[in-house]
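Q: Okay, next protein. This is GNAT family N-acetyltransferase from Vagococcus allomyrinae. I've checked the sequence twice, so it should be correct. Can you predict the 3D structure?
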Amino acid sequence: MIREMIASDIQDFPLLFADQGWEKPVDIFQMYYDEQQKQQRIVLVAMDNHGLIGYVTVVPSAKAGPFFGLPEIKDFNVLEKYQGLGYGRALLAAAETQIARMSDVATIGVGLHSGYGAAQMMYIRSGYVPDGGGVWYRDQLLGQNQPCLNDDDLVLYFSKNLRLK
């Protein structure tokens, strides 16, 4: 089942991610919930009979990157024990449905280190293509030979046309 974020998720998600060694502070989920209430962000949550599985957020207008102003998928996470079971693809499809109400194009930035490998493959298999503009670091286009860290802020942007031709 996929639903919008509810208030109890604010406390539940940080605990679940902490159990697998990922730091996801309560403040982030509180901000997402508040932005959802103000219609500044869409937060979709996957769950089953056992509880929460993962979430994805959609920002109606990207604040940075090559797709500035277009809807962007931001912060997409599935608990490790549920990865590879189709929950990520279901969340991605639900996010695309929301984006299709606003735009013909869905966008996403994905990290380049190995922790993002499964996500990189899922986006490509789902029809996302790189924008061709190069790598971004901390919301800035990274020029050739510029130094950076291979951390969560080093990203490549992808887009997908949501309208069939």
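A: Here is a summary of the prediction. The chain is about 30% helix and 30% strand. Residues 67 and 120 are 18 Å apart (CA to CA).
Q: Noted. On to the next one.
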